[in-house]
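User:
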Amino acid sequence: MPSAIRHHRELSAKGLVVILVEAQGADEPTLEHFLWKTFPDNECFSCVGTSVPLPASDGIPHAGLIGVDGTLLWAGNPLENPKQVETLIETELAKVKKGWGDTADARKVRAALYGKRDLGAAAKLVAALPEGDERTALQGEVDARWASAKQAIETLKQQGSWLKAQAAAKDLLKGVAGHAEWTTEATTIVAGFDTDEAKAELAADKKLEKVVKMLRDKNLEGAPKALQAVLKGGAETKVGARAQKLLKALETPLGKS
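Assistant: Predicted structure:
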């Protein structure tokens, strides 16, 4: 886990996504309490009991690396050959930056779409391609990326991470520059954070971020009281639900394991 967390911290900006999966029987509050207590610097995705496309393991630690095209590149104990894992990660991240595919056009589109995260430029490149299967496939990737970016903003809001949602909305607006239709829709999404409801969520999230900082500083004892203060003024918000979930996690005993 320390290695996975380090990889995420150092390489997430370049396109690496790290998912920590609990598969030993712990519930979600126990997992979250464990992560805050043991790895307060962790910012990876984490989940309980989620199926992942990896071969079965007969021990821990067990990990896998899925490439940019969805292919399973490696699975096993990451401690047995860490250099191999590092090399595979570097190779895939180079593809994110430079694009991948059998043609120069495909590589250019994917470099813009995934490397530069410039949906507007990617859409423009696709529009300039001749009609055919490649153009259709690449257009599908661009459209899917646009849809997933919008969905990610909504998911962050529902999860109570409104500050991250607002930042993602601004990044999306920047990333669709030059595409008139998407720019109009992205502008509307950004403007949605100026409503009274959104402002209340953002204000609550700012308070919650201070609690998160306490946890990052390993102040687990003072965090519950600070969370109660967040709930006092915003229990009905999405952020309030997130604060309640965190409070439950911190109050869950870890046991002897």
